[in-house]
Design goal:
The radius of gyration is 26 Å and the shape is globular. The longest helix is centred in the middle third of the chain and has 22 residues, at 180-201. The protein has a domain at 153-404: Rossmann fold, CATH 3.40.50.12350. It is of the alpha/beta class and 420 residues long. Helix 7 packs across helix 12 (333-342). It has helices spanning 10-14, 25-31, 90-93, 117-121, 165-169, 171-176, 180-201, 204-207, 256-276, 286-302, 306-319, 333-342, 361-373, 386-394, 405-416, and strands at 53-55, 75-77, 151-155, 323-329, 354-356, 378-383, 399-401. The strands form 2 sheets. Strands 5-4-3-6-7 form a 5-stranded parallel β-sheet, sandwiched between helices. It has a two-stranded parallel ribbon with strand order 1-2.
């Protein structure tokens, strides 16, 4: 019976899991360099696919964090539902990384980088998101050269950045409990403005049947002729199928002369967009300008500042160096340009960064963008639909779903904390 008293040591066992123990973290931290949160590594989702790392946007860490997608080149980003979406707090706003963030500041303490780690870390840059960037950094005065880019954000337009199509179908009013008649009326008025601008100033009557994926697609047929005195109304061009064979001045549709006139229109379209991207009112009559201002205000009100919330993320990306916003929409190119101008997004999306997937689909659009910017760049897809989600999966690009206001708020917070 003398041997029984040592059982009193059970108090030692109950206190054994000490806060200083780091059993799981150091080895796993070495597998995913660059992830640092106060709560450790994110857990894999139940039922998730092998080879995919996933994280939620309900952030608990107040430390600036950085995420490298180097795990088999695959990372799926998803935002929580509206119930779990977080509103930026004071802690989150104060969690911005300092301007002169050292190269190893975002690494786990167990694998902290030495002073000269910047050169060594260049090896992993191809598959990584890139270095954490101080938000105090001034935006470049000119867009980054294609070779300097690290991250490109591929945006959908309708129901992601702007609310338009769902105003007309009534789905927005139904989903968010708005007055259906009011919402439909706003959508119809904006639709009328979009097509009026497209028809009057952007050659939509000529180009509707000659839609292109990108504004430069027919540039090779342009002979560089001075268009300052060119009369587009009298050159006999007709974009409708079979309409070009009525006279010799028009030329056969698809022929050299017809293609040259088509290229002239896209060149002038590019000039008009670039000249008025920050002042679409200059293309409208005073009455239409008033209508546009009223519609912008009322749509923002009925959509609970949806566009304003999306703009915060767009402008944050634009203010960074080595990052770019690219628009890929299922709307035809000319109406898409009219939408971008009327919703005040012309300064965010240069015309060279706008693609229409109407003819070829989003997956092919993504292929074109990758061939333009290269595979060293990290691409992040942001959208609301299955098209862009499927296309992103095919190209192993992370996808961020937008379906509620909370998703937009969470996206901005992820960008602020340098998760994206």
């Amino acid at each position: 019976q003398v041997a029984y008293p040592p059982l009193a040591q059970s108090t030692v066992y109950s206190a054994f899991p000490q806060t200083g123990q780091t059993y799981g973290l150091p080895p796993f931290g070495a597998m995913w360099p660059g992830i640092k949160t106060e709560t450790g590594l994110p857990e894999a989702p139940s039922g998730g696919q092998p080879g995919f790392l996933s994280f939620s946007t309900a952030y608990t860490s107040t430390q600036p964090a950085q995420l490298h997608y180097s795990y088999q080149g695959k990372l799926q980003l998803h935002s929580d539902s509206q119930d779990n979406a977080v509103t930026p707090s004071a802690n989150a706003r104060n969690a911005s990384p300092p301007e002169n963030l050292p190269a190893g500041a975002a690494l786990p303490t167990s694998v902290a980088a030495p002073a000269g780690a910047r050169e060594q870390d260049e090896v992993g840059r191809r598959n990584s998101v890139g270095k954490a960037k101080g938000k105090g950094k001034r935006p470049d005065s000119s867009p980054p050269a294609d070779g300097d880019l690290e991250r490109i954000f591929l945006w959908d337009l309708d129901e992601t950045i702007i609310i338009f199509h769902s105003l007309l179908t009534g789905s927005y009013a139904q989903k968010f409990g708005k007055d259906a008649a009011t919402v439909l009326n706003l959508g119809l008025q904006m639709e009328e403005l979009i097509f009026e601008l497209a028809d009057t100033h952007l050659f939509f009557n000529d180009l509707e049947e000659c839609d292109q994926v990108h504004v430069e697609d027919v540039a090779s047929d342009d002979n560089g002729q001075d268009l300052s005195t060119y009369n587009f109304l009298a050159d006999g061009f007709s974009g409708s199928s079979g309409g070009g064979a009525s006279g010799t001045t028009t030329g056969v549709q698809g022929g050299v002369e017809w293609m040259r006139k088509l290229a002239f229109r896209y060149r002038r379209l590019k000039e008009i967009y670039s000249n008025f991207k920050g002042n679409v009112g200059g293309l409208l009559s005073p009455m239409k300008r008033e209508l546009l201002l009223r519609l912008q205000s009322e749509i923002e009100n009925v959509t609970d500042a949806w566009l304003c919330t999306a703009l915060k993320s767009l402008l944050l990306i634009q203010s960074r160096g080595k990052c770019m916003n690219v628009l890929v929409t299922t709307t035809q190119l000319v109406p898409a340009l009219a939408k971008v101008l009327l919703y005040g997004l012309g300064d965010v999306f240069p015309i060279e960064n706008i693609y229409s997937a109407t003819k070829i689909g989003k997956e092919s659009c993504f292929e074109r963008i990758v061939s333009r910017f290269g595979k060293k760049v990290t691409y992040v897809v942001i959208g609301d639909g299955r098209d862009e989600e499927f296309a992103a999966k095919q190209h192993n690009m992370p996808f961020w779903r937008i379906s509620t206001h909370g998703d937009l708020v969470s996206l901005h917070q992820a960008l602020e904390l340098d998760f994206l």
